[in-house]
């Protein structure tokens, strides 16, 4: 990406950075990080954070680290580590040699915890989880000091070593910061620094640790170790900021990044909670993390979203401190605009009915040239085949219709896109009364031009029956039927709102022959039908699989103006 392309409109974070650069706060350096926990796949909300962190680094000539915040071996896995790396790269960002794991700081973190103990600022507490909760108090009630709060430094050091050595059971004790049990901010009421988690193997450190540091302790120190200047996180961490600062102020680390919070992305008709997305996958509501209905980057990629469209979406929604929910249409428009400009046009008949041209020679095949894009001549042309037997879409024919129906009607004419005008002469039905064939005539004088004195308004798409490829077409729609499925109302679950129409498989679609060259992931506009991409899954054979990315904004008004 060139630097002009990535210069973004100013948001409040960029204003803060501008001011910091002006005052030389971090010697003019800008260092950010994107810190996912590898306990699931990245989703569209993460894309906002990635674009923000990497985008700022690019625009301010700074750096952005990819750091795995991996302090909970119970939920993490290398599958997620690899998927996250793939997704960040796909989105168009590069951490270069700055790939880090919080777990590689475990020894340092342990050392800082010992420092806190030696300074009389941390202690080993024997309260169990329930007692700890009770002692913590509430928003209206101050907490109570732990009976172990005044243990001697020597005793604390010894106990902490024993915790590390695996001499205690899970839950037997914790290391806590000694801050203030009466603080109005519950995060400061002697929060846990370390807990015992024996018997779990960590994906990076194996079995070498029996204790694991808590997120709040780990995060600020990891930021400081890496020399992060601006630690951007979502609003739920606002109340944790005093703790972020307390840890850094009370250990001997020479760097104090500034935490700045912004609002999470919420998107209508989907969910962005990793826990719930995991449930959708593990309980089989979707076919996997890359199911094209999922808001994961893997799902969006398989659906046919381009990295550019997602970056563009992230620019459009902006970065603020106000919680809100973005309309799905904003994301859909971003991909439509990209594909409208860049996707080659093709013809595909999703619900075929056969057309037989009675006055066309049975042995004849014409090779016609069709533009790949109506505006972009440089996208060239491809060959389409015209012959006696064609397919058109069932919805494009009616025996009788009023004047608003501008497609094929018995006894009337319609234009076949990129080809001739035809007229429906006769309908052939089976015993059940379903139409199985349409017998038509074609007008040889009408290739690329309207017949003299006759106006043919309707234009429909078609494919040659003997040349078309049989294809499977998967129609995807919004995964949920409710705009905010996870907060839809008392007593409801987001799974109550899974849209039963969100996936429809069409097994007998026909697509034009040129699509045999389409590579997995290639996107097309199927004229009058929408934007589709060739599936990334196993479909290298003769019968391609196409996924619908998004419908056309406007199927009719536009097509009628062109021939
Ligand atoms: P968890 O509940 O597992 O912590 P998380 O959604 O916070 O899930 P992380 O892996 O911790 O996921 O997130 C990595 C980064 O992405 C964090 O800085 C987080 O603030 C940011 N992030 C996560 N979800 C969103 C979202 N919906 N909008 C914007 N940023 C997000
Ligand atoms: Mg998180």
Describe this structure in words.
The protein folds into three domains: 3-262, HUPs (Rossmann fold, 3-Layer(aba) Sandwich), CATH 3.40.50; 274-344 and 471-562, Ribosomal Protein L25, Chain P (Beta Barrel); 348-461, Ribosomal Protein L25, Chain P, CATH 2.40.240.10. The chain contains twelve helices and 29 strands. Strand 20 (413-416) and strand 21 form a beta hairpin. Helix 2 crosses helix 11 (307-317).
Brief synopsis:
With 563 residues, the chain is of the alpha/beta class.
Percent of residues in helical segments?
10-25%
The description of the largest β-sheet is: 7 strands, mixed
Integer count of domains: 3
Question: Order of strands in the sheet with the most strands?
Answer: 12-27-28-29-25-26-13
Structural class: alpha/beta
Poorly predicted tracts of residues: 1-6, 554-563
Beta-strand percentage? 15-25%
The CATH level-2 architecture of the largest domain is identified as 3-Layer(aba) Sandwich
Indicate the radius of gyration in whole angstroms: 31 Å
| CATH fold naming of the largest domain | Rossmann fold
Descriptive terms for the model:
563 residues; alpha/beta; Ribosomal Protein L25, Chain P; seven-stranded mixed beta sheet; 12 helices; 24% helix; binds magnesium ion
What layout of secondary structure does this protein have?
Blueprint lengths: L11 H11 L8 E4 L9 H16 L3 E6 L9 H13 L8 E3 L4 H13 L3 E4 L3 H8 L16 H12 L9 E4 L14 E5 L14 E3 L1 H11 L4 E5 L6 H9 L8 E5 L2 E3 L6 H9 L14 H7 L3 H11 L6 E3 L1 H15 L2 E2 L1 E2 L2 E6 L7 E7 L9 E7 L1 E5 L3 E2 L9 E2 L3 E4 L4 E9 L5 E9 L15 E2 L2 E2 L4 E8 L26 E9 L11 E4 L3 E5 L10 E6 L13
Parallel strand pairs: 1-2, 2-3, 8-9, 10-11, 12-27, 14-22, 18-19, 20-23, 25-29
Antiparallel strand pairs: 4-5, 5-6, 6-7, 13-26, 14-17, 15-16, 17-24, 20-21, 21-22, 25-26, 27-28, 28-29
The structure holds adenosine-5'-triphosphate and magnesium ion.
């Amino acid at each position: 990406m060139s630097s002009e392309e990535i210069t973004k409109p100013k948001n409040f974070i960029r204003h803060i950075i501008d001011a910091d650069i002006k005052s030389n706060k971090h010697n003019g350096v800008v260092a950010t990080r994107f810190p996912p926990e590898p306990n699931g796949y990245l989703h569209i909300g993460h894309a906002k954070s990635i674009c923000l962190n990497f985008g700022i680094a690019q625009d301010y000539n700074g750096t952005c680290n990819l750091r795995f915040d991996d302090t909970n071996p119970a939920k993490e896995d290398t599958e997620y580590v690899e998927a996250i790396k793939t997704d960040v790269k796909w989105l168009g960002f590069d951490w270069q040699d700055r790939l880090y794991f919080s777990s590689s700081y475990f020894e340092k973190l342990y050392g800082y915890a010992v420092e806190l103990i030696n300074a009389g600022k941390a202690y080993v507490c024997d309260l169990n989880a329930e007692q700890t909760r009770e002692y913590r108090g509430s928003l209206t009630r101050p907490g109570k000091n732990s009976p172990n709060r005044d243990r001697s430094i020597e005793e604390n050091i010894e106990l902490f070593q024993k915790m590390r050595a695996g001499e205690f059971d899970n839950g037997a004790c914790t290391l806590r910061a000694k801050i203030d049990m009466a603080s109005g901010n519950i995060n400061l009421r002697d929060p846990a620094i370390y807990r015992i988690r024996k018997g779990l193997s960590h994906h990076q450190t194996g079995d070498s640790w029996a204790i694991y540091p808590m997120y709040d302790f780990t995060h600020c120190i990891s930021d400081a170790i890496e020399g992060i200047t601006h630690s951007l996180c979502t609003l739920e961490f606002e109340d944790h900021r005093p703790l972020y600062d307390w840890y850094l102020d009370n250990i001997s680390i020479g760097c104090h990044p500034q935490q700045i919070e912004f609002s999470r992305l919420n998107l209508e008709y989907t969910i962005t909670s990793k826990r719930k997305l995991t449930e959708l996958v593990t309980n089989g509501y979707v076919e996997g993390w890359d199911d094209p209905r999922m808001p994961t980057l893997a799902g969006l990629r398989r659906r046919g979203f381009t990295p550019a469209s997602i970056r563009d979406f992230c620019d459009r929604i902006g970065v603020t401190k106000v919680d809100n929910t973005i309309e799905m249409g904003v994301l859909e428009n971003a991909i439509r605009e990209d594909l409208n400009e860049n996707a080659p046009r093709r013809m595909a008949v999703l619900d075929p009915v056969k057309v037989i041209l009675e006055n066309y020679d049975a042995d004849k095949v014409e090779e016609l040239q069709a533009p790949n894009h109506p505006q972009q001549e440089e996208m060239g042309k491809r060959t389409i085949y015209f012959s006696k037997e064609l397919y058109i879409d069932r919805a494009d024919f009616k025996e009788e219709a009023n004047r608003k129906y501008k497609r094929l009607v018995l006894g009337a004419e319609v234009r076949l896109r990129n080809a001739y005008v035809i007229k429906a002469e006769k309908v052939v039905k089976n015993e059940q009364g379903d139409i199985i064939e349409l017998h038509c005539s074609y007008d040889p004088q009408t290739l690329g031009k309207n017949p003299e004195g006759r106006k043919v308004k309707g234009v429909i798409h078609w494919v040659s029956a003997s040349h078309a490829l049989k294809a499977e077409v998967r129609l995807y729609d919004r995964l949920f039927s409710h705009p905010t499925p996870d907060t839809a109302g008392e007593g409801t679950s987001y799974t109550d709102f899974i849209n039963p129409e969100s996936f429809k498989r069409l097994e007998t679609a026909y697509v034009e022959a040129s699509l045999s060259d389409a590579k997995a992931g290639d996107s097309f506009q199927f004229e009058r039908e929408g934007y589709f991409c060739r599936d990334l899954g196993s479909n290298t054979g003769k019968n391609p699989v196409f996924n619908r990315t998004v419908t056309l904004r406007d199927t009719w008004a536009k097509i009628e103006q062109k021939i």
